[in-house]
């Protein structure tokens, strides 16, 4: 029986991972971690019986211990607790589904402890790919992508070891504002940006999808996962979200992965790789699928994507600034503290003010993150 740890178990990826566990019946959940949704976490603990549970917020953890007095489980908290949850000896694979740079330290710790990583936390590689990829190679650890696009690329690479990649074609739905101009986005409300046409995701990633910053983060992540140059990754808008990404080889052949927009597919593929398992749900019906559309992304209106390419080309600590600025700006937008267009304005301001560090240590990455937050807060 496969044994797993899930960081971010109450979020979108975490809950869908547990659906996969429930449907297959041959995975044991060794540990769980969540931020503050202790009601759902309690249900998960009582159903899956993990050994260790992390409630990140200390006050919530104290309340949680009281509620679970009747359950034999170790409850931990904070960053130390998150790291412990990732490193429980029995766990073979760690699903990193927490949102943001909080995932860096536990991912590094899990790799050092010899755990394979099912990676759904893109910020980890965006900001610290130069540290994590060499460490994974050194430890002989597999990093298995859970993002639908990166899973699609990974699947399109199977059976092609030794063949040179010409280009990665990273698909995007275009989000709820595809085809809009900047002037159309002046009065965007939170509710408008949360209406994704195809995918059901968490609030933060749904906003990132609407600005196409999420696609920019995926470009940088793909650079590290697949060892390609930033300019060999081409974003293609595919509005139906049927083609999840493609790989072009040097002979001109293009191999793509297609499927319905269901995140359980890449989750299950990562957990059971290289085996494929039956997955309940809808299937593509090619008789009713009358057309597939492809478009070039609008880099002027969705300037955040252009900034991501700049950050990825420059490297160093600049991707950390890009990511951190976006994290806080999106949180402020969701709290109705700034306008929609200010999200990318804040990202650009922080990038222009930053003095880049070519090969930052983990401490320098975390310092750059905090300095970015401080700059944004000083604007208010």
Main sheet strand line-up: 4-3-2-1-5-6-7
Largest β-sheet summary: 7 strands, parallel
The shape is: globular
According to DSSP, the number of beta strands is 11
Cα end-to-end separation: 52 Å
Q: Helix count?
A: 15
Label the structural class. alpha/beta
From N to C, what is the helix and strand string? EHEHEHEHEHEHEHEHHHEEEHHHHH
Residues in helix, %: 40-55%
Low-confidence sequence ranges? none
Fraction in beta strands: 15-25%
Radius of gyration: 20 Å
User: What do the pLDDT scores average to?
Assistant: 95
Model description:
With 380 residues, the protein is α/β, with parallel strands linked by helices. 46% of the residues lie in helices and 15% in strands. It contains 15 helices and eleven strands. The protein is globular, with a radius of gyration of 20 Å. The relative contact order is 0.11. The model has no long low-confidence stretch (mean pLDDT 95).
Task: Give the helices and strands, then pairings.
Layout: E1 2-7, H1 12-24, E2 27-34, H2 38-48, E3 52-55, H3 58-67, E4 74-77, H4 78-86, E5 93-96, H5 104-112, E6 116-119, H6 122-139, E7 143-145, H7 148-156, E8 165-172, H8 190-193, H9 203-211, H10 213-226, E9 233-237, E10 243-249, E11 254-258, H11 264-272, H12 303-314, H13 318-334, H14 342-353, H15 362-378
Parallel strand pairs: 1-2, 1-5, 2-3, 3-4, 5-6, 6-7, 8-9
Antiparallel strand pairs: 8-10, 10-11
């Amino acid at each position: 029986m496969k044994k797993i740890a899930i960081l971010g178990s109450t979020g979108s990826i975490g809950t869908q991972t547990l659906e996969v566990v429930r449907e297959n019946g041959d995975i044991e959940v060794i540990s769980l971690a969540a931020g503050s949704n202790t009601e759902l976490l309690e249900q998960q603990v009582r159903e899956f019986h993990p050994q260790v549970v992390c409630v990140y917020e200390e006050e919530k953890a104290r309340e949680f211990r009281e509620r679970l007095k009747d359950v034999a489980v170790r409850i931990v908290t904070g960053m130390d607790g998150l790291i412990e949850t990732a490193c429980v000896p029995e766990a073979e694979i760690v699903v990193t589904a927490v949102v943001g740079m909080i995932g860096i330290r536990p991912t590094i710790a899990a790799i050092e402890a010899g755990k394979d990583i099912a990676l759904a936390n893109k910020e980890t590689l965006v900001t610290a790919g130069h540290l994590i990829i060499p460490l994974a190679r050194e430890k002989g650890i597999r990093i298995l992508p859970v993002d639908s696009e990166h899973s699609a690329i990974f699947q399109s690479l199977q059976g092609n070891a030794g063949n040179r990649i010409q280009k990665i074609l990273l698909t995007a739905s275009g989000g709820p504002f595809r085809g809009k101009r900047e002037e159309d986005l002046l009065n965007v409300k939170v509710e408008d940006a949360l209406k994704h046409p195809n995918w059901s995701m968490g609030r933060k990633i749904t906003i990132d999808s609407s600005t196409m910053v999420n696609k920019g983060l995926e470009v940088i992540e793909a650079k590290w996962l697949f060892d390609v140059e930033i300019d060999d990754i081409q974003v293609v808008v595919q509005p139906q979200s049927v083609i999840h990404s493609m790989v072009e080889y040097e002979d001109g052949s293009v191999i793509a992965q297609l499927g319905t927009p269901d995140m359980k597919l890449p989750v299950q593929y990562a957990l059971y790789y290289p085996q494929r398992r039956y997955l309940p749900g809808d299937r593509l019906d090619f008789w009713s699928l009358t057309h597939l559309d492809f478009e070039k992304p609008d880099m002027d209106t969705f300037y955040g994507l252009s900034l991501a390419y700049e950050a990825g080309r420059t490297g160093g600590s600049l991707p950390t600034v890009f990511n951190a600025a976006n994290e806080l700006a999106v949180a402020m937008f969701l709290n109705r503290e700034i306008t929609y267009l200010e999200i990318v304005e804040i990202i650009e301001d922080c990038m222009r003010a930053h003095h880049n560090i070519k090969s930052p240590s983990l401490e320098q990455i975390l310092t750059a993150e905090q300095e970015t937050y401080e700059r944004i807060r000083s604007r208010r």
